[in-house]
Amino acid sequence: MNQQHEDERSRIRAAMDRLLAGQPTSSNGSLTVVALAAEAGVHRMALQKRHADLKEEFYARVRTETHQTPEVEKRLRKEVVRLKEALKDSRAAEAASRHRAEQMALAAAVLILRQPDSQDQPAPDNVFPLRPSGN
User: SS3 letters for the chain?
Assistant: First the structure.
C-alpha cells in the first residue's frame, strides 16, 4: 500500500476514536459513515470503496462500545418492517381478488346454464338474449 492510502486509513481510525469518544472536530458527531468520512477528511465513497473494512470496523465498534445500533441498520430494519407489511397487504389484496374472480366465474356459469324457459319465471323486461331463440 502506498503512503497516501496508509495516511487515509490512519485518519479514519483517528476519526473513529474521536466520534466514539463524543469529541468530533469536523463533523456533526453522529455515528454514521457520512460523519466518519467528514471527520477523517476523506470522501465518503473512498470510505465505502477503498476502506470498506474500516467502515465495517466502525459499525462493529459502534455496536460494542456504545451499545447502540448504527443509524444505517435502524433505517434498514424500519424498511424491512415496512416492506413486510406491504407484502402482507399485497398478498391479502391478491387473495381478495382471487376470491372475487372465483365468485364472478361461478355466477357467470350459473347464468349461462340457466336458460329462461316458458315454465320458469319470465325474463325481466330489461334482459335480452344474445342469440334469438329458435324462431
Answer: CCHHHHHHHHHHHHHHHHHHHCCCCCCCCCCCHHHHHHHHCCCHHHHHHCCHHHHHHHHHHHHHHHCCCCHHHHHHHHHHHHHHHHHHHHHHHHHHHHHHHHHHHHHHHHHHHCCCCCCCCCCCCCCCCCCCCCC
Read off the pLDDT of residues 101-112 as tens digits, 9 standing for 90 and up: 999 999 888 888
| 25 part of a folded domain | yes
Query: Do 27 and 83 have their domain in common?
Result: no
Q: What is the pLDDT of residues 37-56, one digit of tens each?
A: 999 999 889 888 889 899 99
Distance of CA 30 to the CA centre of its chain: 24
Mean pLDDT of 118-131: 64
Residue 81 counted as domain residue: yes
The domain in which residue 9 lies consists of: 3-68
Distance between CA atoms of residues 17 and 39, nearest Å: 10
Q: Confirm whether pTM is higher than 0.85.
A: no
